[in-house]
Amino acid sequence: MKKLIKNGVVVTAADQYEADVLIEDGKIAAIGKNFSENVDEIIDAKGAYLFPGGIDPHTHLEMPFGGTVTADDFETGTIAAAYGGTTTVIDFCLTDKGVPLKNSIQKWHDKSKDKAVIDYGFHLMVSEVNENVLNELPTIIEEDGITSFKVFMAYKNQFMADDETLFRTLLTAKEHGALVMVHAENGDVVDFLVKKALAEGNTDPIYHALTRPPEAEGEATGRAAALTGLADSQLYVVHVSCADAVEKIEAARKKGLHVYGETCPQYLVLDQSYLEKPNFEGAKYVWSPPLREKWNQDVLWNALKSGQLQTLGSDQCSFNFKGQKDLGKGDFSKIPNGGPIIEDRFSLFFSEGVKKGRISINQFVDIVSTRIAKLFGLFPQKGTIAVGSDADIVIFDPNAERTISADTHHMNVDYNAFEGMKVTGEPISVLSRGEFVIRDKAFVGNPGSGQYLKRKRFERATAATAQKVLQ
Ligand code: URP
Ligand code: ZN
Ligand code: ZN
Ligand code: ZN
């Protein structure tokens, strides 16, 4: 099968130029002009950008959490992702203490393989380090292609790991070529503050934010960075929400440490005041770390622009307002943490970032796709439009206007965190390995067509190209 996308403007992390893109057998076969090949199909992309498909490095699909299970599974979640311009997700595989890691990975394969409509990989949660785990991790890197491990510094008595676990994970990752990811909040301090608030009768959603202060995130971020330096290892801090954490990442990077940071759309456009919405609506905006005071948004934008933060993840972790978020009525600590973001990550970032002049169009591609591919062992198969790369392409109308709403979104959840926001720019068609998943804004993909991605080992030299400041 050969397809030719004509007349579009190809945009990568480095370039922007008008060209035709020839696709053969799922790969980009040639980029140029005036092809005389016989093709099965010609797609006219006049007036549109051709972006490499977005890569979402942070999703929680069909994940048990907070006494319930996230509302979007690998089918609804990846369909919504595709509508939004994302063609690869890397999901967090949870593990249980005392159970072989292999079993947890198999569970995640069972959930995803007949459902995903785009390609996907897994990060693996590490909650304990012992002889069994140390024996298993190298095989998992080698055979399963899982080259990133997640350690939670928060969620005490649930996911939280201690510093020894984090440190030994960092050492193992260094030795075998993996990247350690942390959820950085001081779980002990947060746990104390939550209990204190509840004992004082403070039960509303806003106390979720007030009991998880920015200092708790900054402290854990700094601690993780220090341990990374001590282990001479590599660290990726997920969902950075505030100046306190950015400062710690910046300081570590100035010292030459291999520390990277991700932020999420919610921290760039929403703020703590959303948690004060009446009638328990604040619960819709409960995730961890919490939304911050508005001034933090400028700090995050500047860090993305200057390269101190490298990527944008969604932290997709959707719960319905009715039936799930309301588990926390009368006790904010029981509100399931997380929100539905997978669909709007890409176009919201284009609209707020490129259209509003905060970042360049090349930085946009770098932050939502290219750098993520480089950090997580997927480049250049994913993350760019180049000869030989997978034909994961978003045909994007930069001038289309749209209002975000739960009435029109495709996530399996009864609210949208960005309800009513107007955005400029919209994916029209989306291809995964050369096949349409979205065509003229309609879903035409097939559950089960998404392939599991075995990822390459973390390489400092590849990741370092993600440190370059592109202006
Ligand atoms: O509130 C959040 N972020 N939920 C998802 C789990 C996590 O901490 O990433
Ligand atoms: Zn063919
Ligand atoms: Zn987290
Ligand atoms: Zn998360």
Percent helix range: 25-40%
CATH class of the domain at 54-382: Alpha Beta
Straight-line distance between termini: 38 Å
Mean pLDDT: 97
Strand content: 15-25%
The CATH homologous superfamily of the domain at 54-382 is termed: Metal-dependent hydrolases
Q: How does CATH name the architecture of the domain at 54-382?
A: Alpha-Beta Barrel
At the fold tier of CATH, the topology name of the domain at 54-382 is: TIM Barrel
Q: Can you count the beta strands?
A: 19
Largest sheet: 9 strands, mixed
Can you tell me the overall shape? globular
Which structural class matches the secondary elements? alpha/beta
Protein name: Dihydropyrimidinase
Cofactor: Zn(2+)
Family: Belongs to the metallo-dependent hydrolases superfamily. Hydantoinase/dihydropyrimidinase family.
GO molecular function: dihydropyrimidinase activity
Give structural notes.
The chain has about 475 residues and is an alpha/beta fold. It has helices at about 75-85, 100-110, 130-145, 165-175, 185-200, 205-210, 215-230, 245-255, 265-270, 295-305, 345-355, 360-375, 460-465; strands at about 1-10, 15-25, 25-30, 40-45, 50, 55-60, 65, 70, 85-95, 120-125, 150, 180-185, 235, 260-265, 310, 395-405, 420-430, 435-440, 440-445. The strands form 3 sheets. Strands 1, 2, 3, 4, 5, 16, 17, 18 and 19 form a 9-stranded mixed sheet that branches. The protein has an 8-stranded parallel sheet with strand order 6-9-10-11-12-13-14-15. A two-stranded antiparallel ribbon has the order 7-8. Strand 10, helix 3 (about 130-145) and strand 11 (about 150) form a beta-alpha-beta unit. The longest helix has 18 residues, at about 215-230. It is globular and about 70 Å long. The mean pLDDT is about 95. The structure holds N-(aminocarbonyl)-beta-alanine (URP) and zinc ion (3 copies). One zinc ion binds near residues 58 and 60. This is Dihydropyrimidinase. It is an enzyme of class 3 (hydrolase).
